[in-house]
Amino acid sequence: xxxxxxxxxxxxxxxxxxxxxxxxxxxxxxxxxxxxxxxxxxxxxxxxxxxxxxxxxxxxxxxxxxxxxxxxxxxxxxxxxxxxxxxxxxxxxxxxxxxxxxxxxxxxxxxxxxxxxxxxxxxxxxxxxxxxxxxxxxxxxxxxxxxxxxxxxxxxxxxxxxxxxxxxxxxxxxxxxxxxxxxxxxxxxxxxxxxxxxxxxxxxxxxxxxxxxxxxxxxxxxxxxxxxxxxxxxxxxxxxxxxxxxxxxxxxxxxxxxxxxxxxxxxxxxxxxxxxxxxxxxxxxxxxxxxxxxxxxxxxxxxxxxxxxxxxxxxxxxxxxxxxxxxxxxxxxxxxxxxxxxxxxxxxxxxxxxxxxxxxxxxxxxxxxxxxxxxxxxxxxxxxxxxxxxxxxxxxxxxxxxxxxxxxxxxxxxxxxxxxxxxxxxxxxxxxxxxxxxxxxxxxxxxxxxxxxxxxxxxxxxxxxxxxxxxxxxxxxxxxxxxxxxxxxxxxxxxxxxxxxxxxxxxxxxxxxxxxxxxxxxxxxxxxxxxxxxxxxx
Amino acid sequence: xxxxxxxxxxxxxxxxxxxxxxxxxxxxxxxxxxxxxxxxxxxxxxxxxxxxxxxxxxxxxxxxxxxxxxxxxxxxxxxxxxxxxxxxxxxxxxxxxxxxxxxxxxxxxxxxxxxxxxxxxxxxxxxxxxxxxxxxxxxxxxxxxxxxxxxxxxxxxxxxxxxxxxxxxxxxxxxxxxxxxxxxxxxxxxxxxxxxxxxxxxxxxxxxxxxxxxxxxxxxxxxxxxxxxxxxxxxxxxxxxxxxxxxxxxxxxxxxxxxxxxxxxxxxxxxxxxxxxxxxxxxxxxxxxxxxxxxxxxxxxxxxxxxxxxxxxxx
Lengths: 538, 315
Description:
The complex is a heterodimer. By secondary structure, chain A is of the alpha+beta class. In chain A, 28% of the residues lie in helices and 30% in strands. Chain A folds into 4 domains: 27-123; 132-181 and 474-536, TATA-Binding Protein; 206-303 and 446-464, no CATH class; 305-441, no CATH class. In chain A, strands 4, 6, 10, 11, 12, 13, 22 and 23 form an 8-stranded antiparallel beta sheet that branches. Chain A has a 6-stranded antiparallel beta sheet with strand order 2-3-24-25-1-26, covered by helices on one side. In chain A, α5 (99-128) packs antiparallel against α7 and α7 (182-208) runs antiparallel to α8. The longest helix of chain A has 30 residues, at 99-128. In chain A, 34% of the residues are buried. Helices cover 69% and strands 0% of the residues of chain B. Chain B has 8 helices and no strands. Chain B is globular.
């Protein structure tokens, strides 16, 4: 990324960007390759790729993305039957996994590395090199000053050298050269190298990381194994043996809400142990407060209600009485939740119930539809339709616990829903009953292992630190020249230039010149050219 | 305490609006005297057919009575605005940037602070005031009416010390970026004005506003200074957000709409900083990049919060 100097006409280049490479008798065959490479690593190309990267991310910020919300994508596809297939062909529902997006950022990083390597080489060389010789005419620099003194040349230069304490200086026969602000380029390089490191960290996480989610009911537990998860996202190179040994049980989940139904706190009390032999330890998993076990973290990501029902067959025999309950899936912010209850361990016909659980029940007087007015349990009800027949579990086709195959089921009462309050019982037509015995809660947990996280964090520190150095440190050079101009008269010339922020440098230059003039005073009877204060050309 | 905060914000907006009028009056009177002085000194090009050519690159630094009053009003408004943000924090018993209303108020405070710092350091002239105060007043008006939310506690995901760090950085960077966006637009206006008047073409509104603006060079530098300050702060805000997301949602980056637009904003400002150092991109092209980046920031904030459903949908 070649930069051009802001101070055109100044003889000195302050940039450590690579010098343009001269023709070095290019081998004919390699010439096009070299030309392409130079094009790719040029600032213009980098700029173009940056804009492409921003532009490419725009559809990802507007269109629903599969990685975030597949249901939303399905809805969008259903609503836009002609447009959606075209968008899908262009991978616009998974922009950040799209080949063209990867192509843009990979090219950008190739361009970045291609320009970083020579810059690092040049900068390490510049760090060892002394400041350059003074240009012939210091008064032509953006900042300059000139006065006369009675002190001899050597003494003037020695004083100048000692006054420029925090500068890197070099003594020549007639001049002192000084330079400061090498950290600007160092910071710039650290920033860009850290960006590459960040990409490495992300890649490591993508390849060797793991993410899985599991629903755990109060009173139940979880052992960390692939088979026990409801949903997993392993990295491409993830092996099950890298799963951290972990067991935990959910003792109690509690949510608190404001009067407006907005959640205040979520709190999952668990007991966990890193292995089967260790004694379980208690921990509160909350939002912003995950559980750390080795390289894994356990997050609380969702919650909902279980309904405890007691189902009896017509002879009074209990067919279902699971105190832990059947999980219901929340459908809205006030926790109207859908429940599916399958009773298959029966002696006669199999039974099933489908409906809604409402923690704070409200019923529309006209339509009789139930809803929930608040997410907390204040006036709970279970509104269900009952079925009898064959659940189809013997068909061999795996089915979800949350959906019902109704092909061989007959609804009771023609599918009329029945509303049950706590403790209430519905006597089923043809014998048997279902009673709403109680409510418990469940939580969903996400277990994450990301071995690239540490690398990304180090990179992030480098990015911010490097950026601050490269934007706030100013690279500047100064020269002090002294030459004898007759008997006991020395002409002192000072010149300086800064590549960035000339205004701030002007103040600094004036201050340094002021100190130098105090140290190197003009003769009391100076006749000629009463050294103007530092003059400025803008 | 919450009512006090609301009243203070109203007073601050009033002071800013009056300051805006003062700045505008000052700019108008100065323009009149300058044309007059050019005419008196006999530099008016007679027979050229074009408008009077003002040769001075930078207008005189003297500020009229209206300008001084406007500066004083801005300072008063700023102090009252600080009071409003502080009392809001006390009323809600937390940091005063928990919802869109509070965020907007705090970001506008940062923008006004930035303007005051630029003026104090002599980076820009006070004549910029009218152009800075107009969007600030509109922005605060929008915040106080459409986005207003009563002071209350936070949803659980926001309940973390990271809100102090992440949102504070985001507010600071946003305020500064918005200021730089205004300055970049004014730079474009002034550059267009210079281009037209250099060839003696007549200028019409809004290009004619360029007459009262600071020189193109100083606007360009002011925009850069503000962006150079805000860019690392924004970078830090995004990184702090990632660290917080790792604690709250179990991943540090997930291309949530807010994250995506923050990324777009970041890339565009990175593009601006590079463009400003690339031959052929300096000046107007770079300024357009700064304007596009500010637009992305506005999308990131308003469009994503109001119209797009994502993990950042709180307020």
